[in-house]
Amino acid sequence: MHFDYLIFSKIHGFAGTSNILDYIGIFLAEYMPYLMGIGAIVFFAIEISKRWNWKPLWMAVVSTILSRLIIVEAIRIFWNRSRPFVVFPNMSALVHHSASAGFPSGHISFFFALSGAIFLFNKRLGWIFFILSSMMGIARVFVGVHFLADILAGAVVGILSVYLSSLIFRRRGSKI
User: Fold this and answer.
1) How does pLDDT run across 26-41, given as a tens digit for each residue?
2) How much is the pTM?
3) How far apart are CA 18 and CA 98, in angstroms?
C-alpha cells in the first residue's frame, strides 16, 4: 500500500506543473474513452458489413459486461478502497469524480476488455487499443482519481474477462 501511495505521488506530482501536460492528462483520462468507443463502433460496423461477422461485437459485449458490471462491482462490494482525492483531502484532482470506490478501475477494466476482444479479431488494432487504454490508465493516476494498483487490477480484470468470455464462446461451439 505504501508503495502504491509513493508511485501515485510521483505520477500525480507532475499535475499542475504545466498547462499542456494537464490538458493532455485530462484529455486522455476524460475524453479518450469516447474516441475509443467511436473507434470500436467503426471496427464492429466494418466487421458486420464486410463479413457479416457479429462475433467481435458479441465478444466485446460479453467481455465488457463481465468485467465492468460483474467482476469490478463484486470486488468493490468486498473491498471498498478510497480514491486518492479522498485519502489525501488536501490534494486536488484535475477532473471531477464521485468519491465512489476506486479499486479496481472500472474504466480500465472496461477498456482492457474491449481491447482484448478487438485483439482476438484484429491484432494490430487490438494493440493500438491496449496502448491507448494504458495511456488512459496512467492519465487517470495523473489527474488524481486512481492509484496505480487500481489501474493494474482493472487491466487484469479486463484481460481475465476476455479469457473467460472466449471460453464461454468456445464451449458454445463458436470458434474465436
Assistant:
1) 999 999 999 999 999 9
2) 0.91
3) 25
